[in-house]
């Protein structure tokens, strides 16, 4: 890699890091492009070489944050031990574990939770699931299919739609409970939420005739 290309990567990384730090601490609405470039130590024109506005850089950061969370959850799921013998129940247990891991990580870091707000499913699907320049070479949905492959007898109807429903339900119902204990605490929500997720999975399992 030449010095010019290396310099471009350094500037891009500086913009990403400064934006993330500012979005986390100040919020997106209160952060200006001037704030971002000043913290990154680059010229304002450099920002527009990479992004059209601060919302585009927000989208990129949402993707990266969602990727990091879900990939960590996937690797933790692979290491976890499950007592279920039945493949269908085991698949449910692994899905619950994956979702619970993500939500527990967000519970530990409420600044990240506030940044993602209701955008967790957006980062997972609308950007990272599709062929998008911001996503990694291996899409997050591929890891979920690996979990599904470990249960060869389980056949799902519209697995991507099912997973979207699960992530959307988990994110939309959990944020207010984690941040504000509203309308109930997160611990009180968990049994109801995970019961609903199991119901979604079972409704998408195709029964062989």
Tally of DSSP β-strands: 0
Described by strand count, sense and barrel closure, the largest sheet is: none
Shape: globular
The residue ranges in which pLDDT falls below 50 over 5 or more consecutive positions are 127-137
Terminal Cα separation, in Å? 57 Å
Helix content: over 70%
* Secondary-structure element string: HHHHHHHHHH
The whole-number mean of residue pLDDT values reads 85
How many separate helices?
Answer: 10
- How much of the sequence lies in strands comes to under 5%
Integer-rounded radius of gyration? 19 Å
Class from secondary-structure proportions: mainly alpha
Could you characterize what this model shows?
The protein is mainly α. The protein is built from ten helices and no strands. It has helices spanning 3-25, 33-40, 44-50, 54-79, 87-108, 110-116, 120-127, 140-149, 159-180, 186-204.
Characterize this entry briefly.
This protein is an all-alpha fold and 209 residues long. The chain is 73% helix and 0% strand.
Q: Which terms would index this structure?
A:
209 residues; mainly alpha
What's the topology here?
Elements (H helix, E strand, L loop, with lengths): L2 H23 L7 H8 L3 H7 L3 H26 L7 H22 L1 H7 L3 H8 L12 H10 L9 H22 L5 H19 L5
Helix pairs in contact: 1-2, 1-4, 4-5, 4-7, 4-8, 7-9, 9-10
